[in-house]
Design brief:
The chain is built from 15 helices and 7 strands. The longest helix is centred in the N-terminal third of the chain and has 38 residues. A hairpin with a 3-residue loop joins strand 6 and strand 7. The protein is 60% helix and 9% strand. The N and C termini lie far apart (77 Å). A 3-stranded antiparallel sheet has the order 5-6-7, covered by helices on one side. Strands 1-2 form a two-stranded antiparallel ribbon. Strands 3-4 form a two-stranded parallel sheet. It has one domain. It has 347 residues and is mainly alpha-helical.
Length: 347
């Protein structure tokens, strides 16, 4: 029996080694796709990037047929809204504005939908206060989870909005606040304005500043409140890939994480999350350094890295304060809402 037990153990270990290698291959493939988009903007596809990360985390089990069908359905609904919509807007960017308004309605409004002469009430997407940072289960951050449950957070909601806009043939800029992602648009009548998918309103910049964690230097240096371009948006997804990898391989040696962080920083030099990850990985390397002199030299470099992040204006925002700040947008809606844009987008 002993030889049989040893043989069984051998095959058992081989099975898990192959399984781990398959997972690693999916992450390597996702990195290659994202990095190709960063190196060659003609390869940019935000939807492909997002689902590439989700599929890697889900070990190749993302239901791509389902998510693509749902997105086609949402895009089709947007086209119907555009066709039936009267928008009192005469500037030459009217086509884009109409698309943004339809995407907003699909995400945030209850819409009457007529099917075979029967009127149904379309239910908009809602904010999910359960595990908002994906600490318990990282897939709670996913667009695929949002599409399945119709509940999401400040990560999946703006991601889906951006995907829908791009499927409609228009743009949508992601923007960052502490622990938060939202949308920025610019039209010829109103200039730049914010679209907040977690609450379905158009807050002014005063709400973002009300968090108390947005330093003026962070705005000046593009850490927060910057309308991100395509490369910078993919840099965000690259950090999603790093976070997903850390969840799947918690005992990793940091090599893959550093590769993701460096690619993200190259595309978005003042991306605080990527800079912090690089610094934390350097700190771990120093802690394992056996040469005292080299460790001392490296520690001085580490101090400079932390100082640089601080100078950029980044400030840590505790999770409970973030949630209180997020709720304040609803409780103090009259104080922060741009009513002209709210009425304009619901016409």
């Amino acid at each position: 029996m002993k030889p049989l037990n040893l043989l069984s153990l051998f095959f058992f270990l081989c099975f898990f080694q192959v399984k781990a290698q398959n997972k690693q291959t999916l992450f390597d493939k996702s990195f290659a796709e994202l990095n190709a988009m960063l190196l060659d903007e003609s390869k940019y596809n935000f939807k492909t990037a997002v689902f590439s990360v989700e599929n890697a985390y889900l070990n190749g089990k993302l239901d791509t047929v389902f998510v693509n069908a749902k997105i086609r359905s949402l895009t089709s609904l947007c086209h119907s809204l555009i066709k039936d919509r009267f928008l009192a807007y005469v500037e030459n960017d009217k086509e884009d504005v109409n698309k943004w308004a339809s995407a907003y309605q699909v995400m945030c409004d209850s819409i009457p939908v007529v099917i075979e002469n029967k009127v149904y009430q379309y239910i908009p997407y809602k904010y999910d206060f359960n595990d908002v940072f994906g600490n318990e289960e990282y897939s709670n951050m996913f667009v695929s989870k949002l599409l399945e449950t119709r509940k999401g957070n400040c990560h999946s909601l703006p991601y889906l909005y951006k995907i829908i806009c791009e499927e409609l043939g228009t743009t949508a800029h992601l923007a960052l606040a502490p622990n938060h992602i939202y949308i920025k648009h610019q039209n010829k009548k109103h200039g730049w304005y914010n679209t907040e998918l977690t609450s379905g309103i158009f807050p002014n910049d005063a709400w973002l500043m009300a968090s108390g964690f947005i330093h003026v230097d962070a705005i000046k240096n593009g850490v927060y409140m910057k309308a991100l371009n395509n490369k910078e948006s993919i840099a965000l997804v690259m950090m999603d890939l790093a976070n997903a990898y850390q969840k799947v391989f918690p005992e990793n040696d940091g090599t893959f994480l550093m590769k993701c962080a460096e690619a993200a920083v190259k595309a978005y030099p003042n991306f605080a999350s990527a800079l912090i990850l690089k610094t934390e990985l350097h700190k771990k390397q120093i802690e394992s350094e056996i040469d005292p002199l080299k460790a001392k030299q490296d520690f001085k470099k580490l101090e400079q890295e932390y100082a640089h992040i601080h100078v950029l204006g980044y400030r840590f925002m505790p999770e409970d304060m973030y949630l209180n700040w997020l709720v304040s947008l609803k409780t103090e809606r009259d104080k922060y809402e741009n009513k002209k844009l709210t009425n304009f987008n619901k016409k």
